[in-house]
Amino acid sequence: MNKSILCVILVLLSLMSFEQNQKVFPSFFQPDAWIAPPEANKIKNPFASDQKSINSGKIIYTTYCISCHGEEGKGDGAASLSIKNKPADHSGKKMQTQSDGAIFWKLTEGRPALDMISYKFVLSENERWDLVNYIRTLAAK
Fold first, then answer.
1. 29: in domain
2. Which of 39, 51, 118, 130 is most buried, with most CB under 10 Å away?
């Protein structure tokens, strides 16, 4: 087979694979804004945002999030200086206007392209919901 035809076939297969991966792993391929898929907005928070949940979320945030997102959630933690992409500002409008389900989805799936790891196998579902409830308390006043 001609090398040119083989190259064209390989390029086409790569493009098809890339398009399929965008559907399966949408957060990895978004060039700028990190937008949770529409179905994430339908996920309802099963936990009341009570003091117990918020306190639990704060402990988790202190353990896993402060290094990048900072104490007030502004994306200014000490580790933020050493990573390529600035961490999200959890206190800002962009974060606070997202649904609980979208935030939960982002915590669950992560986005390596933004240096945000997945907590799917690190934190239980309950812990991730507590974290969502705590992030809500960081809203800029």
1. no
2. 130
Q: Which residue has the higher pLDDT, 115 or 6?
A: 115
CATH of the domain at 52: 1.10.760.10
User: What is the extent of the structural domain holding 113?
Assistant: 48-141
pTM flag (> 0.90) = no
How many Å apart are CA 52 and CA 59, to the nearest integer? 11
End-to-end alpha carbon distance in the chain: 66
CA 4 to CA 57: how far, in whole Å? Answer: 56
**Rama region for 40: left / alpha / beta (φ>0; ψ in -120 to 50; rest):** alpha
| Sequential DSSP letters for 25-83 | SGGGS-SSS----GGGGGPPP-S---HHHHHHHHHHHHHHTHHHH-TTSSS--GGGGGS
Residue 4 placed within a domain: no
